[in-house]
Every structure is written in structure tokens, then in C-alpha cells.
TrEMBL record, chain A:
It comes from the Bacteria. One of its GO terms (molecular function) is transmembrane transporter activity. This is Biopolymer transporter ExbD. Its main location: membrane.
From TrEMBL, chain B:
The keyword Transmembrane applies. One of its GO terms (biological process) is protein transport. It is a single-pass membrane protein; Single-pass type II membrane protein. Belongs to the ExbD/TolR family. One of its GO terms (cellular component) is plasma membrane. Keywords: Cell membrane, Membrane, Protein transport, Transmembrane, Transmembrane helix, Transport. One of its GO terms (molecular function) is transmembrane transporter activity. It comes from Pontibacter oryzae. The lineage of its organism: Bacteria, Pseudomonadati, Bacteroidota, Cytophagia, Cytophagales. This is Biopolymer transporter ExbD. It is found in: Cell membrane. The keyword Protein transport applies. Its main location: membrane.
Amino acid sequence: MAEIQEKGGDSGKGGKKRAKRSSTKIDMTPLVDLAALLITFFMLTTTFNKPQTMEINMPVKDVDPAEQIALKASNAMTIILGEDDNLYYYFGLVEDNPELVESSYAADGIRKVLVSPRVKSNDKMTVLVKAMEKARYKNMVDILDELKITDTKKFALVEISDDDKKLVTDQIGN
Amino acid sequence: MPKVKVKRKNPSLDMTPMVDLFFLLVTFFMLTATARPDEAVVVDTPSSVSEIKIPDTNVITITVDKDNRVFFGVDGQQTKEALLDKIAGKYGIGFTAEEKKTFSLLSNFGVPVSQLKSFLAMESSARKEVNQPGIPIDSTHNELGDWVLQTRLTNPQVVIAIKGDQDVDYETIQRVIDILQERKVNRFNLITDMENKPQNL
């Protein structure tokens, strides 16, 4: 930095006392520190704030029942979301008293079933998701997620019927 | 021969351009930052692999917290003022200009229409403390349906998002979806957190 060289001490007789000129440069390091701190703060607080969403389309409700085509038993699979994160599924229709299988939300649970040839090779296979009243919202999102991961196109969220509940109590018990 | 003097470099450098740059960035981030609106409740949303982002504007957010209370929120101050006018007309409650102003600044709320006037009269700090009962969703006082319908009449472009806590009973969510379907809303979004997509299928 520019330092003013002062002339040698007290040589000469009573030389003029000069006002010490201080340097005009300031040390900017603290300023930089502060600015960097602020940048870090704003960068971390602004980004990654936007939540994700999952889009679902529900079927139009009040269609004339006469116009609806009944689902064939061979093309139906039902997933029942029960209490306490329980998960059951069965193939076919509830009238035929199908065998209820217990499964789970884990990677080797319902996902295995959804990618199995029985579901994947059948283009007409429709997955019906029925949630019990006491199932958690997370269960529903999880199952929709599994359907998305396994790329299952045909699925519907259906209200659970008494027959389905009876099936669960009969085969699994409480 | 004279000795070649090695020029000694001054170790301190000029930091002015660096400071300039930094302050430019600070200004940029400060201006683009959107303050997070203070929500009436905190909900812990479930996670999904979905990567669709929610739009910034024209969103109705229906929040369901873990005690099965339902909160309603919509963005846009003009929308909210017009909406309150319509609700006031429907329920026969008059709101003052000041109450409308307060309402237009709320991000969401969860009180029945009958308590809305006293809720708006509170100080903003007291409003945060008060325990909001949630918007009635049962079939006899289906106020949520009215809010949704009137918002859609005010702003037809509006998108509906449901933000539910992961521990909410499915029953409540089912009821909310039913209300939306009664109002001919068959497409809506569920707000979720990020999750990594599993690779090994």
C-alpha cells in the first residue's frame, strides 16, 4: 500500500510538523465477508421452496348406471387400504368371494404385484383403490405413487363397499 | 553489472469489484425472494415421486390438518375481496371495508362464516393464537363447497390443490373430494413432498 515515507526523524532544526496523511484505502475484507454471508442466506432460503403436486382426475360421478359397462372379473384388481397401514389386494370381483392377500407398501410388497405379468400383460386390467375410513391420507398418496411408479394407467379411487369390508373381516379378522 | 532487483509484489489486492459483484447478487436474491406466507396450520405432507410443480398463481389450497380440520386459502387480493363480497351476499353478513382488507391479506383461514366477522376483527397476533375450528364440511353446513364454488365464479382459471397431513383419516379427504365432485371439479392436485424415484423395478 502506498505509504508515505517520512523524512528522517528529527534532523534539521525544528522542521515543520506535517499532518500525517492517512491512506485512502480501506480494508474491504469484512465487507466481503458480510456480503457472502447474506448471499448464502438468501440462496438457501429462496430456492427449493416450491412443493410438488400430484395430479389426479376423478371420473365424472353422475353417469347413468345403465350406460356404464360392468367390469369383467378377469380384468379387475382391488387394493384395499386398511387401518394401521395394512394393505390387502384381491383379483376379481367381490361377489365371487376372492382370496384376499395381505401385502405392504414396501418396495417388495404391492409393487411386485403391480409389475407382475398378471397385471402388466393385461391391457384391460383396472386397479380399483378402496380406502377404509380409518386409513391414513399418506396410504392413499403412497398407493397412487406406486401406481405411477409401476406405470399402471387404468386405476380408479372407489369408495369402499360393505361387501369389501366384510371380506376383510372374514378373511383377515380384526 | 548491477544486480537485478526482484520486484516485490504487494500481497493485498483490490477487493472493490468483488464487493460490487457480491452486493449485486445480494440485491438479486433479496428481490426475487418471496416471503413465505404464514399459514394457519403446519401440515406434514406425504411424499411422492411426482415432479409436477404447483402453479404460482390462481390456486385454491384446501389444507387438512391432522385433527381433520379444513382450512381454505386462495391467492390474489382482488379475488379474495370479490369472494368475500359474494359470500357476504349469500350468507347475509355485511363486512366493512377494513374487514375486507384484512381478509384479502390472509393466506388461509379455518373458521365458519358465522365466526368470520369476529375472526377478522382480531389483532393479527391474536389471530395466530386462536384455535380455529375448521370450515364445516358436513352435508348440512357445507361451507367449503360454497367457498370453492364462489371462488370459481370469481376466478374461473383457478386450480384446486389439496394439502393434507399424512395422518389425516381418509374419510375426511374422501369428504373433501366428494364436495369438489358435487361442484363438478373432477381434476385437482394433491400437494406432496419430494421423494426419489426408485430405479430398480
